[in-house]
């Protein structure tokens, strides 16, 4: 049975051990030509207030999530990490895609959550 697809995210500040509030997030559709399809800022829980792709506007394809963590951490220039870009492939009927970003000023990791 095919499940409606959607995309959400959240950001965790692993250096401080808390959700990362105020991180600017962009979602880019990479095909046929790169196009920004959503912008949001994380709330007090480190999440965006709405899905970046809701089921009603979901299109399968190649995307890139861009997180402005350099500004969030406020480190002097040049920053080791400025924008973390995560390329993701999204397929129809695969249900909810949740992509958390765990980050510090010096590192990041991610996974497909639920």
TrEMBL record:
Q: What keywords does the record list, in alphabetical order?
A: Hydrolase, Purine metabolism
Catalysed reactions, as listed in the record? 5-hydroxyisourate + H2O = 5-hydroxy-2-oxo-4-ureido-2,5-dihydro-1H-imidazole-5-carboxylate + H(+)
User: This protein's superkingdom?
Assistant: Bacteria
Q: Where is the Transthyretin/hydroxyisourate hydrolase domain?
A: 7-113
- The UniProt record lists the keyword Transferase: no
Name the Enzyme Commission number(s) assigned to this protein: 3.5.2.17
Q: Name one GO molecular function term.
A: hydroxyisourate hydrolase activity
Q: How does it assemble?
A: Homotetramer.
Say what the protein does.
Answer: Catalyzes the hydrolysis of 5-hydroxyisourate (HIU) to 2-oxo-4-hydroxy-4-carboxy-5-ureidoimidazoline (OHCU).
Q: What family name appears in the similarity comment?
A: Belongs to the transthyretin family. 5-hydroxyisourate hydrolase subfamily.
The protein's name is 5-hydroxyisourate hydrolase
The organism encoding this protein is Teichococcus vastitatis
